[in-house]
Amino acid sequence: MLRYAKHQRTLKQNLGLASSTAFAAGIINVAGLVSFFAFTSSISGHMANLAKNLVSQNFYEITVFAIWMLLFFLGAFVSSFTVKSFAKKNQYKAHAFPVVLEMIILLCVAIYGHNFYKETKLEREVVISLTIFAMGLQTGLVSIVSGGLIKSTSLASLFTDLGSEVAEYYYLGTKKDKMIRNRIYVRMTVLAFYFIGGLAGGFFFNKYEFGVFYFVPVILLMVLL
């Protein structure tokens, strides 16, 4: 799924990348919400909490939410920097590195959470930080590889783009372009698999707790194929 980028990619490749990464993001977000009471694949809520704590002058929480947002940014930065630096030498390896790093981070979260997690406040914040950084890696990479088409963690942006493209597709007098239709298919795939992943994350976390995080690297292995 990572051997080609942007306009070189087929619809099938984009659908595969969209479904697998959105499914993984949905699992992580809901599992994080159930276990830590915090979103781990989206930072929109963290921005709202940052603003709320700025008003109440809770400087500790301000620092925490600011760090989480910075880590998402850094994850996206690392993905973009890696791809732009090494794509000319070996495009596949440049694309694969952020995914492998994400898998390692999530595997560490799974091992620590399953065996050592004591539910302290510091542990919670560190584990959330790791998962947010991992989601930044994924979001940045998927966006670069797909030419901005796939946004596996940003549903607000997804609905905005989807609404615009559906309107364009059905607008009276507009030719029903195959490219627009394919973009709609990809965005609907992201939405569907994010939702399914969320259901799976909630269900399996209730049964296996942190064991659900072992499953996500397996999904990401499919992305490397």
UniProtKB/TrEMBL annotation:
PANTHER family: SLR0142 PROTEIN, UPF0700 TRANSMEMBRANE PROTEIN YOAK
Membrane-spanning segments: 21-39, 59-83, 95-114, 126-150, 184-202
Domain of life: Bacteria
Protein name: DUF1275 domain-containing protein
Pfam family, any one: DUF1275
Swiss-Prot/TrEMBL keywords: Membrane, Transmembrane, Transmembrane helix
UniProt organism field: Mucilaginibacter phyllosphaerae
